Amino acid sequence: MEFVSATILDGKATRDAIFDDLRTRVTALRERGVTPGLGTVLVGDDPGSHAYVRGKHNDCAKVGVTSIRRDLPADSTQAEVEAVLDELNADPACTGYILQLPVPKHLDSGALLERIDPAKDADGLHPVSLGRLVLGEPGALPCTPRGIVELLRRYDVPIAGAHVVVVGRGVTVGRPLGLLLTRRSENATVTLCHTGTKDLAAEVRRADIVVAAAGSPALITPEMVKPGAAVLDVGITRTDAGLVGDVHPGVREVAGHVAPMPGGVGPMTRAILVSNVVEAAERAAR
Ligand SMILES: Nc1nc(=O)c2c([nH]1)NC[C@@H]1CN(c3ccc(C(=O)N[C@@H](CCC(=O)O)C(=O)O)cc3)C=[N+]21
């Protein structure tokens, strides 16, 4: 028996290609006197969140985007965090920024996200940005969904006409991904599955593209995957043995393409964040 393993959708190599393009565009903006600047607001001392924020500042340095970092103590009040958001809204050096999620439980994250100036929303998670996504108007798009579409495009995985099964209805991945993929420019047919789905295996088996974003280790098994399908692993669960994704390793023997975790969608999410900041600066400079 000969097993032909899936083609790996390499998020790191794709991120590097995106950064090469962004570097050129940032240079052009700087020549016109515009310097994109990404702000991060981090509340508390979750080690995972600290690592993500550090990564985002490293990414900015790689492409010439200035970065502005605001770290606040875990016991910050709603008013104290809001004051920092107001400060970044008013700061011309900060052309886009994010509030790192999750924030400590005593804070109202919805109210904080809404306080961000929509013109500076780098994450695409502001209600105005999400509304624009529903309406098909230009604006910041959520980083992970856009990263997924970009990764599929660069590997020539057909999206138009494809049946995509998205597992997970979270506001950062599953829900906006369904909206993005059903736009006329993507033209996919999407089934959005979640914990209330009756027969997940039957749904996944029909998919040309599977996006697993449920946060449930090894949820997608080889038996559930149509031979040749593209399977993208977006789940991240921290265990004692390290990080594990939503896709069982055996899926590589069945799928045509696999975006692994790590090394797949995660690096794309970060690349799109920087891309959103550069695009917002380009829009403002027009
Ligand atoms: N306002 C906000 N925006 C976000 O975009 C946001 C957030 N909050 N909170 C947390 C989640 C998670 N997230 C990841 C980004 C990159 C990797 C990534 O690059 N992962 C690597 C390594 C895995 C790791 O070290 O975690 C990989 O998959 O290869 C993972 C997860 C962005 N998030």
TrEMBL record:
EC identifiers of the protein: 1.5.1.5, 3.5.4.9
Superkingdom of origin: Bacteria
Keywords associated with the record: Amino-acid biosynthesis, Histidine biosynthesis, Hydrolase, Methionine biosynthesis, Multifunctional enzyme, NADP, One-carbon metabolism, Oxidoreductase, Purine biosynthesis
Residue span(s) of domain Tetrahydrofolate dehydrogenase/cyclohydrolase catalytic: 9-123
Stored Pfam families: THF_DHG_CYH, THF_DHG_CYH_C
Biological pathway: One-carbon metabolism; tetrahydrofolate interconversion
Chain's role: Catalyzes the oxidation of 5,10-methylenetetrahydrofolate to 5,10-methenyltetrahydrofolate and then the hydrolysis of 5,10-methenyltetrahydrofolate to 10-formyltetrahydrofolate.
Family classification: Belongs to the tetrahydrofolate dehydrogenase/cyclohydrolase family.
Name of the molecule in the record: Bifunctional protein FolD
GN (gene name): folD
